[in-house]
Amino acid sequence: MNKLNSKPFYPWLVWALGVSFFFFVYIIRTSPSVMQALLMSDLNLSVVEFGLLATYFYIPYSLMQIPVGIIVDKYGPYLLLVFAAFSIGVACLLFSFVQGISLAIISRVIIGIAASFAFVGAIRLAATWHSKEKMGIIVGMTQSVGMVGAIFTTPLAYALQTVSWRSAFIFFAFLMIVLSILLYFFAYPKPGVKVQEKEPTPIMESLKIVLSHPMTWVNAVFVGIFFNFSTAFGENWGVSFLNQAYGMPNHIAAFYKNLVFFGWIVGGPFLGWLSDKIKKRKAVMIPAYILMSVCYFVLMYVPNLSNLSLGVLIFLTGIGSSGAAICYTYSTEILPEKVAGTALSISNMASILVGTVFVPIIGNILVTKVPSKVLNGIPYYDLPAFQAAFMPITVSIVLGIFFGLVLKEKTAK
Q1: What is the CA angle 16-268-33, rounded to 5?
Q2: What is the CATH topology of the domain spanning 2-187+198-406?
Q3: What is the phi/psi pair of residue 140, to 5°?
């Protein structure tokens, strides 16, 4: 093993294994978006109950972020990632056998808790093998690889035409257990590099350092709004929007909504590299946010768009949204290194917590609207109904520009 870790490629192998965990987590967390009809039919769920499946992933995932940051700062990411990957494998196996909403929620809660270690753990593990000068692009690449996982809902949608959703979750369980073994044997931290404090900063002191900095709060709100479209549309309601408002078949709608994540794949590494190159964060975040906002408004409020226009707008919204990844790097640079994990966790928590609030709101607004039709007991809604349901996101995007402008520019380290 000592010979292997001396190879030039080994830092990237460690990053690849850590980011693979984040990649598979993204597949698992977004998979219900292409299983909506199957899950609602098989488990006899309402639209609101289906929204709860997403909510009960995001709530524990969000609430765990601050504890995760503190735990990673104290103990390091290595064994935590191993245990978390194995736990998700077990929870996926449990989900494959559910017969009703209660056990489904329990398994999603377990997945949400274990998945909360994925992003922060992968970044902190990579940080032991890569220089600080590379961290902007490392964070951008990591987030982009996660989005590749979300894109895998397209082949999953095709696969679900021939295999059951239960078989899919059994396969997810197998993948995560195998990954936990690979992480154990190959993804250890760089020898001689400190991944946790010998005398850890006390929990309350860590929180005080992070939460007393005003830009922590501004950045948290900004990244939450910045990321919200990707969560609400890309991970949850995009297939329903395109299928019901524009009549796309389910598997085609899955591809189109995944253009959000293709945008992330293109934009994440490039914007991260650009912010490293010019050594400024806000100067890249604000133009990206404006691009996201403009494309969102056209997508949501201009009727009768062609399929080509829909695809281009969704892709460009994804590119703009990828600027949110820079907020993660920003959060670690405005604070001491010893609380970097906690700072990163708070930003990640905010990016998910906002979606946790807005995703079920969309479902609750939709059920107040009269469906344009009902097929096999599933209501279908038209474009005006979705416009009304997405109105809270629209308002938040308008408010978000204020928080972006208030952020103080940070020169990259």
Answers
A1: 80
A2: Growth Hormone; Chain: A; (1.20.1250)
A3: -60, -45
